What we know:
Layout lengths: L1 H18 L25 E2 L14 E3 L4 E2 L14 E4 L2
Parallel strand pairs: 1-4
Antiparallel strand pairs: 2-3, 2-4
Keywords: Signal
InterPro entries: DUF3761
Protein name: DUF3761 domain-containing protein
Amino acid sequence: MRARLAASAVAVALAGVFFSAPTASAATLPSTNTAHHCIHHTTGVCGWTHHQKPKDKYETAKCRDASLSYSRHSQGTCSHHHGVRYWFK
């Protein structure tokens, strides 16, 4: 009986780790945008070449619906916001 309780407690703890909501902290934010250049992406254009600047130093993209993105990777950025308008990284 104790083995079952211990196993279920471990399963609940692991489920909490995998299904917990991500929290925003300084460790999860992308590096600051000081390079003034963009890497090659398949959609969107470089904001710097169109005289667009990020609102703050952590913004990595601006979506087509004018929302901001702070994603660390390009895959899926602005996927629920009609795609990327400008990249800032």
